[in-house]
Amino acid sequence: MIDLEKARLHLEELGLLSAASLLESLLERAQHKNSTYLDFLNELLETELPERQKRNIEVRFKLARLPYRKTLAEFDFTFQPSIDEKLIKELATMAFVHRAENVIFLGPPGVGKTHLAVALAVEALSQGIPVYFIALSKLIEDLKKGYEENRLDRRMRNYIRPRLLVIDEVGYLPLDNLGANLFFQLISARYERGSIILTSNKGFGEWGELMGDPVLATAVLDRLLHHAHIINIRGNSYRLKDRLKTGLYYGSPNGKA
Known about the structure:
GO molecular function, one term: ATP binding
Keywords: ATP-binding, Nucleotide-binding
CATH architecture of the largest domain: 3-Layer(aba) Sandwich
Pfam family, one: IstB_IS21
Low-confidence stretches: 249-257
Shape: elongated
Number of strands: 5
Organism: Thermoanaerobacter wiegelii Rt8.B1
Radius of gyration: 24 Å
Domain AAA+ ATPase: 99-234
CATH class of the largest domain: Alpha Beta
Oligomer: single chain
Helix content: 40-55%
């Protein structure tokens, strides 16, 4: 029993917690089956793999900074018939990430852009793809801070490194000259190297005003859209779905939404 406890402690020190907890029962099974040493070792390690993979996924979720966890199964495609469900399911295979392509969700507030972006990010994480999620306003704020502290390269690497970068809420606040230039630098740095999922409430024709520079906006869109899947969502606010069903929301004077 002393040797058994010693082996268990070694497993725990190595971080093999599942194997440590099951060590005694697996030993008894191996003795009963008259297993070889190699068979026993393989069985012991196989008990650890699922737990290790689960822990790795949880670590990736924390590093991704998702605002919440939503899946495609939770999205009501019947409420937004303008969305091509087949295309979304194809994107969920993550083939677009392997090809370093982008996904752009366009539409008014509340139609499910962020839900879909997060759901694709969740799928990417479950497949072992590093993800980082951030709203554009916070992204620009962080890059500006790096610029002011002469640490821009270091801050920029945080957004270049992940294979999938999710930039949310593009268009809600205009960018000043520095912010627009930093955004251009990031898009250029990721061009054909890593994928971006971007959500915006502004049509591409409005990006010149958003960035305060039509030429710079054209340069950004040229790189962003070169290899991109564009999903334009047209419909009612997803958040008002239940109120619309009960007739408690009226979007026009004649009582029609």
